[in-house]
Automatic annotation (TrEMBL):
Family: Belongs to the TPP enzyme family. MenD subfamily.
PANTHER family: 2-SUCCINYL-5-ENOLPYRUVYL-6-HYDROXY-3-CYCLOHEXENE-1-CARBOXYLATE SYNTHASE, PROTEIN PHYLLO, CHLOROPLASTIC
Sequence ranges assigned to domain Thiamine pyrophosphate enzyme TPP-binding in this UniProt record: 440-554
Known function: Catalyzes the thiamine diphosphate-dependent decarboxylation of 2-oxoglutarate and the subsequent addition of the resulting succinic semialdehyde-thiamine pyrophosphate anion to isochorismate to yield 2-succinyl-5-enolpyruvyl-6-hydroxy-3-cyclohexene-1-carboxylate (SEPHCHC).
Reactions the enzyme catalyzes: isochorismate + 2-oxoglutarate + H(+) = 5-enolpyruvoyl-6-hydroxy-2-succinyl-cyclohex-3-ene-1-carboxylate + CO2
EC nos: 2.2.1.9
Species annotation: Virgibacillus chiguensis
GO terms assigned for molecular function: 2-succinyl-5-enolpyruvyl-6-hydroxy-3-cyclohexene-1-carboxylic-acid synthase activity; magnesium ion binding; manganese ion binding; thiamine pyrophosphate binding
Keywords attached to this entry: Magnesium, Manganese, Menaquinone biosynthesis, Metal-binding, Thiamine pyrophosphate, Transferase
Protein name stated in the entry: 2-succinyl-5-enolpyruvyl-6-hydroxy-3-cyclohexene-1-carboxylate synthase
């Protein structure tokens, strides 16, 4: 068997085993050393291959696709610095628990460390941000080698999605010549055995607490009347129904993060408090809402005001429910961690037949929530504000749709202006490491899962990833972008840095002074500028009936926007305090 046949059977069996385990999508960055993998992934009839030229964009594209599809996606690149460009998205995938299978091509061992071109140390280069690293063996002939590659492929797919999902990294050293030949007989199979997969199907149960532990938790909660359920970022679409039933049964308010998937859907109920970020900004109000216990599901909420709430009430009994492992509690408050499948846990508590709270407690939260929504919903006759642009998105977005939101101000405005609705809207974001890089590519990756996506982001996030728009043009992906352009870093206007008038604009405001319509046109997209809330709504609706990329730009002023938000929060605080003092 010659070199080409050995190489071909090696990579075809590896790729075919990924498909046998469930792989459907591969994101490929062009290069020479990765030729065997790239050609084989493109050749397999059951894989959709996406060719993204820029490796950083490719990695974030795969991240968005995996996040939306909820299954592992393969990433492939050549050797050298191409592999390093995957790093930011791998960090994000680790922290947000998204399954990626990273396949990096490499020089063979004899070409490492001697000055060969495009050869860097790729062994465990992503450090602890991957769940598993494996240096693949050089291709050899024989059935044992084909068993080996299938074993590693099956292991990679399983490890990426089991437990806390994440990244696996396999490094492939290849000798030249690099071309493969699919004309060999039975090239996708191990010829001398009837079962092509060396790893049989795996069966994995879901974690639940035994009856004795549920009873112990109930004993700890006994007599505590002022409880709060907190739902942070998570992507399980079955969870909202279960947690809402628990809240209804126990009479508890749900502080629902916009990324919790709890604010929208047929399950929505009065127990959901979506205005809590505005409510908890005042210390006196936080004291009036002092809890006896907190049960949190998902990651830490976006709201900084909620973190103030936790720090002010460190004596409250706090329980954090995690699917598998991890200790996500950044305030370092005393916390009981419960490792169980959240839906099963909610059902267990709901079926316990225990009422732990008073009607007055829940009514207080509802009353305050109504005050917050009243002020946040006030209409403005002047030019559009950023929060009003978010309101327009939520009013216009159709049922059964997806919103991908950028970090910084965009996700915080979504937190403030996303009212609960019976429309089913999945909300996604890169909130693992909370960076502004790669957001355009991640939104397009979510589109690649076969849905129209509305991407909401600021001008700096857009600028950071403009080359990600090439995928929209190349694949005609159905993406609507609401670009909120305040000419810089709007979130810094809310922070203490804004008081430094000498250096603020250069170091924090960072105005771009870019006319983005030329960028959109360069990538074949449709561009329009909207000036009012009604205008944004209309142009969003029109975009949903248009193929390909549509960008709706809203231009705002950072200082005016900050003052507008602060006036809203002050009005809410004033009415709540006046109401409680009557």
């Amino acid at each position: 068997m010659n070199h080409t046949e050995v190489l071909t059977r090696y990579v075809t069996n590896f790729v075919d085993e990924l498909v046998a385990n469930g792989l459907t999508d591969a994101v490929i960055s062009p290069g020479s050393r990765s030729t065997p993998l790239a050609l084989t992934l493109a050749e397999h009839k059951e894989i959709k291959d996406w060719v993204i030229i820029d490796e950083r964009s490719a990695a974030f594209f795969a991240l968005g696709l995996a996040k939306k599809s909820k299954r592992p996606v393969v990433l492939v690149c050549t050797s050298g610095t191409a592999t390093a460009n995957y790093y930011p998205a791998i960090v994000e995938a680790y922290h947000s628990r998204v399954p990626l299978i990273v396949l990096t091509a490499d020089r063979p061992h004899e070409l490492r460390g001697i000055g060969a071109p495009q050869a860097i140390d790729q062994i465990k280069m992503y450090g602890d941000f991957v769940k598993w690293f494996h240096e693949m063996a050089l291709p050899e002939a024989g059935t044992a080698m084909l068993h080996y590659v299938r074993n590693k492929a099956a292991s990679a797919y399983y490890i990426a999605k089991e437990g806390n999902q994440g990244v696996v990294h396999l490094n492939f050293p290849f000798r030249e010549p690099l071309m493969v030949d699919f004309s060999f007989n039975d090239v996708w199979e191990i010829n001398d055995i009837s079962c092509t997969s060396p790893i049989l199907p795996t069966f994995e149960g879901k974690k639940h607490l035994p009856k004795q532990q549920v009873e112990e938790i109930l004993r700890q909660l006994a007599g505590k009347q002022r409880g709060v359920i907190v739902c942070g970022p998570q992507t399980d679409l079955d969870f909202p129904v279960a947690v809402t039933k628990l809240a209804e049964k126990w009479g508890l308010p749900i502080l629902a993060d916009p990324l919790s998937q709890v604010r929208s859907g047929a399950h929505v109920s009065d127990e959901i408090i979506e205005g809590y970020d505005a409510l908890l900004r005042n210390q006196t109000v936080r004291e009036k809402l002092k809890p006896d216990f907190i049960i949190r599901f998902g990651a830490m909420p976006v709201s900084k005001a909620y973190s103030f709430y936790l720090k002010q009430h460190q004596d409250a009994l706090q329980m954090v429910v995690e699917n598998d492992e991890g200790f996500r509690e950044p305030t370092n408050n005393p916390t009981t961690f419960i490792f169980a499948e959240p839906t099963i846990y909610c059902e267990a508590l709901a079926n316990a037949g225990v009422e732990t709270t008073s009607k007055e407690w829940l009514q207080l939260w509802k009353q305050f929530n109504d005050i917050a929504k009243k002020h946040l919903n006030d209409q403005s006759d002047s030019e559009i504000r950023e929060g009003e642009a978010i309101r327009a998105v939520m009013d216009s977005t159709p049922n059964q749709s997806t919103i991908f939101v950028g970090n910084s101000m965009a996700v915080r405005d979504l937190d403030s202006f996303f009212w609960k609705t019976d429309k089913q809207i999945e909300v996604l974001a890169n909130r693992g490491a909370n960076g502004i890089d790669g957001v355009v590519s991640s939104g397009l990756g979510a589109c690649a899962a076969g849905v129209r996506v509305t991407l909401v982001l600021g001008d700096l996030s857009f600028f950071h990833d403009m080359n990600g728009l090439h995928a929209a043009m190349h694949y005609q992906l159905p993406l609507t972008i609401l670009l909120i352009n305040n000419n810089g870093g709007g979130i810094f206007s809310f922070l203490s840095q804004a008081d430094d008038k000498k250096h603020f604009e250069a170091l924090f405001g960072t105005p771009l002074h870019i006319d983005f319509k030329y960028v959109v046109h360069m990538y074949g997209g449709y561009y329009v500028h909207a000036k009012t809330e009604a205008d944004v709504k209309q142009k969003l609706i029109e975009s949903y009936n248009r193929e390909g990329l549509s960008v709706i730009e809203v231009k705002t002023n950072r200082d005016i926007n900050a003052n507008w938000h602060k006036s809203k929060w002050q009005a809410i605080e004033q009415e709540i305090l006046e109401e409680r003092n009557r």
